[in-house]
Amino acid sequence: MGQSFSTCSSLGRSSKRTPEKEAKHDFFSDTTSGRASSSETASTTPNDGVEDGLRPFLAKAKGHYWYTTTGTKILDACGGAGVACIGHGRKDVMKAVASQMRRYSYTSYAHFRAQPVVELEEFLVESTGGKMQRVYLLCSGSEAVESSLKLAREYFLWVGQPQRVNFIARWESYHGASLGALSVGGHVARRAPFEPLLQQGRFGRISPCNPYRQRLTNPDGTVESDDQFVERKVAELEQEFQRLGPDTVCAVILEPVVGAALGCAPAVPGYLRAAKQVCDRHGALLILDEVMSGMGRTGSLHAWEQEGIVPDLQTIAKGFGGGYQPASALLVGHKIAGTMKKEGKVFTHGHTYQNHPVVAAAALKVQSIIRDDNLLENVRAQGELLGRLLKERIGEHPNVGDIRGRGLFWGIEFVRDKTTKQPFDPTLQIALQVYKTAMQEMRVLVYTGQGCAGNGKGDHIMIMPAYNISGKLVRELVERVAGAIERVFERY
Ligand SMILES: Cc1ncc(COP(=O)(O)O)c(C=O)c1O
Question: What is the pLDDT of residues 140-162, one digit of tens each?
């Protein structure tokens, strides 16, 4: 889902902007007409932005709901961008943040050690069973990805392999908005305006692992098995290593479950293990980008725990701080961390807000809630229910091509033709229509994306509720989302 950027020039003074003025700048300000609401939580004012599919002004957020300034209550089925993993308005997190701010609200990481940062680092290392040994605490997924690329490169300088300058990534992946992260990512639409600025030569690219669109039929008429599929995909990775020169590759970067670019597509069983083997064979590193799929979203704290592999570098964000502070991190495995320790090497990198104590205090509290409330178990249980109910309720719909996901991370891909899997014309903006209808008529917020079918085509929505969702609310969520989908396709 895109967003417009707007600046506020009146910091500290009362803002003169109104919802109407805001609407003029809005990404969603097209001419789609709203329908009368069928929801009992309908707005008290007919035009508060929700009715037009615009971004309404938010008054508050609590638990699983957003509340606009005009009183509309919207069920949060996606945590914004897959962020609000323990729901909104938790007083215990606010208390932890305020308490840290009372002690000190900032310190430069170069001058002091901050207790919450140290505790958070210890928590993260311990959460991996010591497999990841070092942590850089940052503020955004893009920063974490940029850092991972740079650390991979610098590691090879330390070990005397300066010729390693290339990376391999996949189409239909997203690794962030900054130029390095955008260069390595394979999200066609998000790259397009900036193509001339992106690094062209250093990033080799392979196809995604997308069984819905790529699984072949064998000559004997049987469908390609997981093993055959993985073998074919990994042969393509091997080929890319050979094309670039195997000893020129720093790392392969992958999302274990692809988020915004592909709509919650888990890797086929065995794929990540096989990819890691190729990296190991050629002495390259494996970076797992768990910015969206990590920190419990797919049912284990780290998505790689379900894959039987350990990455060399791992990025986390989103559910890490649950939206209470902008928290991300780069986790470093033993190969690199060991070299740094043994050789006394220092990563030539840093950000002003690295190791921010308030960010650390918030992330620590969010993570302690996830652990103490046993929320990962709930993610697995409610995730299974969510997937099952989505498939039962709309799996047979003629325009629902695929429903896929893991944990509380589910994507629904829309197609014009269910048999041929033909995507819709991107200009119809089908996913956006579903988003708007969900918001306007069913009062539920979903995350949208385009490009999952390749070359910028293909529409999907993503369902990513908070980890503490109940079975009752999962049922309600499915009904609302299904209702929105049915209403949109009545029009096509
Ligand atoms: C897998 C992945 N990597 C990186 C990013 C970039 O994170 P941020 O938007 O916090 O910079 C995202 C954001 O959606 C993501 O999903």
Answer: 999 999 999 999 999 999 999 99
Ligand 1 pocket test, candidate residues 140, 147, 175, most atoms within 8 A of CB: 175
How far separated are the first and last CA of the chain, in Å rounded? 21
> Which CATH number do you get for residue 48?
3.90.1150.10
Find out whether 433 and 64 touch, Cβ atoms under 8 Å.
no
Q: Side by side, which strands form the sheet with 73-76?
A: 58-62, 65-68, 73-76, 444-445
How many Å separate Cα 308 from the centre of its chain? 21
Q: Is the CB of 257 under 6 A from ligand 1?
A: no
Number of Cβ within 10 Å of residue 8's Cβ equals 8
Pocket lining: 177 vs ligand 1, CB cutoff 6 Å = yes
75: how many CB neighbours lie within 10 A of its CB? 22
Residue-number span of the structural domain to which 465 is assigned = 25-88+375-490
- 3-state secondary structure (DSSP) of residue 165: coil
Are 312 and 211 members of one domain? Answer: yes
Q: pLDDT, tens digit, for every residue of 384-424?
A: 999 999 999 999 999 999 999 999 999 999 999 999 999 99
AA identity, residue 366: V
| 45 phi and psi angles, rounded to 5 deg | -115, 125
pLDDT tens for 18-74 read: 443 333 333 233 322 333 333 333 344 456 677 776 789 999 999 999 999 999 999
- Apex 110 CA angle, 105 and 116, nearest 5: 45
Name residue, tokens 């196809």. Answer: 207
Q: What's 330's DSSP letter?
A: E
**Nearest CA owner, ligand 1 atom 5:** 176
Strands 265-266 and 166-170: unpaired
Task: Report the run of H or E that residue 405 belongs to, with start and end.
Answer: strand 400-406
Give the C-alpha distances (Å, rounded to integers) separating 299 from 88, 259, 279, 384. Answer: 20, 15, 26, 10
Same domain, 327 and 406: no
Amino acid letter at 427?
T
Q: How far away, in angstroms, is 287 Cα from ligand 1 center?
A: 14
CA 23 to chain centre: 27
Q: Of 342, 372, 402, which marks where a domain is finished?
A: 372
| Residue 255 neighbours by CB distance under 10 Å | 30
Q: Is residue 460 in contact with ligand 1, taking CB distance under 6 Å?
A: no
Residues 197 and 272 in one domain: yes
Q: Give the integer Cα–Cα distance in Å for 356 and 114.
A: 8
Burial of 451 (0-12, 13-18, 19+ CB in 10 A): buried
- Whose CA is closest to atom 6 on ligand 1? 176
**Closest Cα to atom 7 of ligand 1:** 141
Task: Give me ligand 1 centre to Cα 142, in Å.
Answer: 6
